[in-house]
Request: fold
Amino acid sequence: MPRYFIDTSDQRFFRRDETGQDLTDDQTAKQVAVSTLPHMANDALPDGDARTFLAIVRDENGKMLLQASLALQVTRLRPDHE
Reply:
């Protein structure tokens, strides 16, 4: 089974996956990367009003296969204090 590495970034910190995981194929690696993004957003809600979360999939040779992203944008609809 091929080994995939999923690096992550939240625009402030970059975490390189040094361990990786054995997955059946590229499609499964894509699913794992995409499912990682909401967890990242929940764990690190932005201090400001916007942040983009990234998951980058590499193969066992270090070749980047895909990048998935999730953008979190907060828009205030009314002032904080009225």
